[in-house]
Amino acid sequence: MKHPSTALFANKRVLIVEDEYFLADETRLKLEDLGAIVIGPVATVRAALDLLDNESVDAAILDIHLGDGLVFPVAEELERCNVPFVFATGYDPSVIPEKFTGFTLSAKPTELGYIADALFGERSTNAN
Fold this sequence. Notes:
- By secondary structure, the protein is an alpha/beta fold.
- It has 4 helices and 7 strands, in the order E-H-E-H-E-E-E-H-E-E-H.
- The protein has a single domain (about 10-120), classed as Rossmann fold, CATH 3.40.50.
- The chain is globular.
């Protein structure tokens, strides 16, 4: 049974920034099944920033540790553009800079109902 909040992904343009191919692809497939328009997935900070320069994005799911560094420049750009995002990582939340502590942290593998609530729900915990 699907979490009721997953319907919130329908017709949303969701950026996936994840360097683990199989996890990124699994998330992409699940989001597409929910009616989302997936942007990416991309595995590097540079690729994510390039996409943000050229694509409209409604929300983003961000892995913290990527092949070319930490995802925080992407989070800063998303915040600047008022795009909600969540960090999806297996790492301890203490690695997230204090300025982002109001953003939802979702452990891997990603629970899309929880993420939908965080990104689009009335009780969103994202601090934009």
